């Protein structure tokens, strides 16, 4: 049995999850996302990543980026290491790929700002 707080929306429902055999039992959720979140947390926890990368432009030294979809929680530090290696030297815009298929996770790191263009 484990207690969790759902992070899918600001309500922050208190969830309780337990497993009997192969079946998960979740309580405390106010919508189906909470049940899915609790089971995902116990099996394959995922997280979104928002960060910044360095640029070579003096007036805009950092550019906001994000992962194009959620990544496994246990890969966050490795992905952040890859993000921290990047120095953008082209005038790229929002949605442009900074790192394609980072760590072979099937996720791109993309720019989230037009601050360089
Ligand atoms: S269970 Fe639903 S309502 Fe509650 S925090 Fe999660 S997403 Fe929000």
Terminus-to-terminus distance: 51 Å
Indicate the CATH class of the largest domain: Alpha Beta
Number of helices: 2
Q: What's the average pLDDT?
A: 96
Q: Taking strands numbered 1, 2, ... along the chain, how are they ordered across the largest sheet?
A: 8-5-6-10-9
Radius of gyration: 18 Å
Number of spatially distinct domains? 2
Oligomer class: single chain
Low-confidence stretches: none
Strand fraction: 35-45%
Number of separate strands? 10
Which architecture of the largest domain does the CATH hierarchy give at level 2?
Answer: Roll
- Bin the helical content: 10-25%
Globally, the shape reads elongated
Order of helices and strands: EEEHEEEEHEEE
Query: Any idea what the CATH superfamily of the largest domain is called?
Result: CPE0013-like
Q: Which structural class fits the helix and strand makeup?
A: alpha+beta
Distinct ligand kinds: iron/sulfur cluster
CATH fold-level name of the largest domain:
CPE0013-like fold
């Amino acid at each position: 049995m484990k207690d969790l707080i759902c992070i899918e929306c600001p309500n922050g429902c208190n969830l309780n999850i337990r497993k009997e055999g192969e079946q998960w039992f979740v309580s405390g959720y106010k919508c189906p996302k909470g049940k899915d979140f609790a089971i995902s947390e116990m099996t394959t926890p995922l997280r979104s990543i928002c960060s910044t990368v360095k640029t070579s432009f003096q007036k805009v030294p950092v550019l906001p980026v994000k992962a194009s979809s959620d990544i496994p929680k246990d890969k966050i530090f490795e992905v952040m290491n890859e993000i921290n290696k990047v120095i953008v030297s082209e005038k790229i815009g929002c949605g442009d790929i900074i790192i394609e298929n980072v760590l072979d996770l099937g996720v791109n790191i993309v720019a989230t700002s037009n601050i360089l263009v």
